Amino acid sequence: MSPEPTSLLQGTLDLLILKSLIAGEMHGLGISRRIQQITSGTFVVKPGSLFPALHRMEEEGWISSFWGESENNRRAKYYRLSKAGLKQLEIETKRWSRISWAIDQALEVS
Amino acid sequence: MPLLVKARSFLRNLFLSRRVEADLDQEVHAHLEMLIAENIRAGMQPREAQRAARIELGGVEQVKEQVRDSRTGAFLDSLLQDLRFALRQLHRSPGFALTAVLILALGIAANVIVFGVLQALVLRQLDVPHADRVMTLQPKDGGPFVSNPEMRDVRDDNTMFSAIAAYEFQDFGLEANGVTRPVWGCAVSGQYFEVVGIKPFLGRLLERADDDHPGASEAAVISWSAWQSDFGADPNVVGTAVRINKHPYTIVGVTPEGFHGTEKIAQLDIFVPTANEASLDGFSWLESRSYRNLFSVVRMKDGVTMPQVQAELNTITARIARQYPKEEEGLALKLARPGLIGDFIGGPARGFLAGVMGLAGIVLLAACANLGSLFAARTADRTREIAIRMAIGSSRWRILRQLLVEAFVISILGGACASGLAWMALTGLASWHPPTRYPLKFLVVSPQPSLILMAFLISVLAAVLFGAMPLRQIFKTDPNDAIKSGGILSPAGRRWALRDVLLAAQIALCCVTVTAAFVSLRGLGKALTMDLGFNPKNALLTQFDLSQAAYTGDAADHFQRQLLERTSQIPGVEIAGYANTTPLSGDTSVAAVFSQQSADFRPSSKAFDMYFFDVSPGYLAASGTPLLAGRDVSFTDTAKTPPVAIVNQEFARRLFHSEHAVGRYFKNGDGVSIQIAGIVADGKYFTFSEDPEAAAFFPISQKANTSTALIVRTRRDTADMVAAIREVLRDLDRAVPIRDLGPWNNQLALTFFPIQVATVALGIFGAFGLLLSIAGTFGLASYTVSKRLRELSIRVALGAQAKQILSAALGRMLILLASGSVVGLLLGVAASRLLSAIVYQATAQDPLVLAAVALTLLLTGSLSVAGPVRRVLHANPATLLREQ
Fold first, then answer.
1. Which residues from A are below 8 Å from B27, CB to CB?
2. Among chain B residues, CA nearest to A73
3. Are the C-beta atoms of residues B336 and B136 closer than 8 Å to each other?
């Protein structure tokens, strides 16, 4: 099955979530903070975008979830990357490189 | 496997929705908690921390809703929501829901019933193997009858048919277990069951050898239902000896269940070979080319096409016509679909059913227009709700979908009720026995499961039709305006709204059905009061065939005279007489008339055709046929005296161009000169819608006939007289099976049957149309009035007169009603031309019909606006204005 075409922004969010999960399993807030960190604060993902994306990606089979204990002993839902997610990360990365290269090219034309 | 994962999450979302919801709730709350904890760690006060966390989260419910929308199967989920919402809406306005469901149920049921009949009688093939190869042959013009030699010639000369058969309906006296009963059956030629291609349920079917020559076999086959009812489902019935018309026969087999011959609406219970006709009928027609009494049915070989068959038929009939110019001149046969005696009944039946199907469609359209305007009005009332939903982010599509779901719910409920109604109606029709001595049965229309599918499809179609009416309203809604203006989307009374147009259209459509109903009602009225040329009132008709008790020639004549003598002596009998058959009985015979000068007796040189009857002295008086000149027949007219006849006025006019014909002569097809002894008034002989036809009455004493129709004109109570006549017959010979005994009018019922069916069917549609237009007019009038009551009250308060108020409130309703009615009346006039095939003198240009339709519409129109008008006139401005 070929991956469904995703809109630019949604694709970007997916890419960022997948990328942040490379570091290991994380709960929602962790992912959100991680994205903030790796993009040097450029992207602040609101829960209203984050959770729908997480649930959608889980249904796609790219990530899986389980309940665990948070750092200060709270019950929290953790997400981890699946095999399919790893593959999806590769696809999204390539796609993004192509887009960013193309945009760069476009901007260089004076 | 992403697909598998998706399917799993879909099912999980669908069936474990509560767990999924709880999970989501926990997750979002946990997230909030963590946000608060994070803020506190960053040094905020708990209250401050909580507030900041909530702001970052953006609302627990909103997040949850966004997650729900992104889930697999979100569409289905929201559809279920819509469904629940629709049910709640309908529950909230049960009056509206009930009306809508009822209107739709009736509209859909009408369509399903008509379609069920259409499918059974016209669309579905005969229930025999490879029915597409089975056809009938019938003369290109005229009735469906062929003669035995004609069929024999086609059988021997053709290369296209794998089997070809002829058959005749007959009423037999069947004697089994010591009881003689009249049973309808079929004399069939040798290949009949090869054409049909069915396998026997028990024993064997009739074969070629059975029909080889007269007396070749005494085999009879009975139908499954006769086996059930008359032979107690006896498994050893094969080999049972019975007597048919007093002749010994042996039952050799039983047909499979559901087989009743090859006519769809006839139920035949016994099958015997045609070869034995002479013994069964009392005379032989097997070799007569001019005695055309048979229907035919053929099976085409695989691979041959209709044009090929027709071409070969043309060659064969041309040869027959050359070989036997006297009887067969102009013979031409065509292929016709089997099941309804070829095109003879099939043609008119197909036309009528197609017309009724059209009316049913019109009724459904009217119902949809009705519901559409109701829906549009409701949508207008809900403008504010819709605007609010749009303002908080609902898409127009989502709102439209919600309305469509509501329409579907109503429609499906209506369709379900309609299925039930149609099922009952068709079951009733299937078990109904029309009031006739013929074996008519509509078993074939028994409801099929496919009917439910049909009802469902129509429901969906209807839902889309009326559910999409508010489409424009929704797409034009501007939330800003709608909320500001207090929810009046298209203020009633300011411009023409869609619902106004729908109302006019609906009234026009209903008007068509009302016109059709009145036209057929008027036709029936005319038919019932028409001068038939005889008077069936106060007359009893007794019918039997003496050949069924093995009488022939002189013995039959003797029996009939004795019967006449004995019945004439019954107290209360004014006069009695008998004939071989009576007018409008369905089995009248036709013969060619030649002028006295004619020496050439080929069909082409005949003067005209006449209906003829063999009658006894007294028959004319007993039947109420006025004798205008000359004398009645007499028992002194015998085979030894010169042949005489009594003819009707039309006969005299056609032959002599004058009604002074007594004493003059004509010739029959055998060249025999016949003197005219009397003149009777014209009448109806074959159908009551026929043009004046020539007819002749011959003395039955000059040519004995076993077929007997005794007419007794009486002053006494019918039941007593029936018993007295039965007693006389029993006394004369117990073995004569009486086919019919009762008021003559009852037996004319078959003649009036088609127009009665038409009138009932069209009457129902007319009534339904009226009901719809009342509902529609009333609905819209009340709606308009309720919307404008406040405004109207102000007018009243300012001193407006009742007339002004009425014209302001309902003026446009009247314009709609009037224009709709005029258009409908014109359409109705155009459509009722189609009715002329069945209905006697069907025309909508009849001033009485036009007046009746106009009056009915006026009446129903005023009836349906009466309520709203009262409400306007009795409105108390003071209370009303205070209330709002």
1. 28, 51, 76-77
2. B34
3. yes
Kindly report the nearest CA distance between residue B84 and chain A, in angstroms: 25
CB contact under 8 A, B6 and A55: no
CB < 8 Å to B9, chain A: 58-59
pLDDT of residue B448: 78
* pLDDT tops 70 at residue B790: yes
Tokens of B837: 């095939």
Optimal mutation site among B3, B16, B34, B64, interface A, most CBs of chain A within 10 A: B34
Is residue A77 less than 8 Å (CB to CB) from chain B? yes
Q: Running DSSP on this structure, what letter comes out for residue B643?
A: P
What is the distance, to the nearest Å, from the Cα of residue B264 to the centroid of all Cα atoms in its chain?
14
CA B187 to chain centre: 29
Contacts of B58 in chain A (CB under 8 A): 46-48
**Cα separation values, B1 from A59, A62, B4, Å:** 11, 11, 5
Sign of the alpha-carbon dihedral angle for B870, B873, B879, B881? positive
Tokens representing residue B144 in the block: 């469906």
Cβ of residue A11 closer than 8 Å to a chain B Cβ: no
Give residue B487's pLDDT. Answer: 45
Question: Burial level of B511, CB count in 10 A (0-12/13-18/19+)?
Answer: buried
What residues form DSSP beta bridges with B266? B440
Of B31, B37, B70, the CB nearest to A28: B31
Query: Could you give the angle at the alpha carbon of B256 between the alpha carbons of B255 and B260, nearest 5°?
Result: 65
The reply to whether residue A52 touches residue B34, judged by beta carbons under 8 angstroms, is: no
Which among B670, B663, B687 is positioned nearest to B588, based on CA atoms? B687
Tell me the pTM: 0.67
Count other C-beta atoms under 10 Å from residue B561's C-beta.
Answer: 16
Residue A13 has pLDDT above 50, yes or no: yes
The runs of H, that is alpha helices, within B574-695 are 619-623, 649-656
Cα atoms in the 13 Å half-sphere on the side-chain side of B319: 11
Residue B243 to residues B74, B223, B537, Cα–Cα distance (Å): 75, 16, 37
With CB atoms and an 8 Å threshold, state whether A59 touches B35: no
What does the pLDDT look like over B623-632, one tens digit per residue?
A: 888 888 888 8
For chain A, how many residues are written?
110
3-state secondary structure of B563: helix
DSSP result, B325-374: HHHHTT--EEEE-SSSTHHHHHHHHHHHHHHHHHHHHHHHHHHHHHHHHH
B26 Cβ under 8 Å from any chain A Cβ? yes
Gap between the Cα atoms of B520 and B721, Å rounded: 35
What is the rounded distance in angstroms from the CA atom of residue B58 to the CA atom of residue B64?
Answer: 11
Q: In angstroms, rounded to a whole number, what is the distance separating the alpha carbons of residues B203 and B215?
A: 21
- Higher-pLDDT residue of A14 and B19 is A14
Residues of A in contact with B56 (CB under 8 A): 46-47
Please report residues of A whose CB lies closer than 8 A to that of B34: 27, 29, 70, 74, 76
| Cβ atoms of residues B536 and B856 within 8 Å | no
With an 8 Å Cβ cutoff, are B58 and A48 in contact? yes
DSSP letter (8 states) at residue B301: P
pLDDT, one tens digit per residue, over B809-859 is 777 777 878 888 888 878 777 766 666 655 556 666 677 777 887 788 778
pLDDT tens digit sequence for B522-561: 777 777 777 788 888 888 888 888 877 777 778 888 888 8
Q: Is A60's CB within 8 Å of B3's CB?
A: no
Sheet bearing A63-69, strands edge to edge: A26-27, A75-81, A63-69
Question: With an 8 Å Cβ cutoff, is B57 touching chain A?
Answer: yes
Cβ of B27 and A77 within 8 Å?
yes
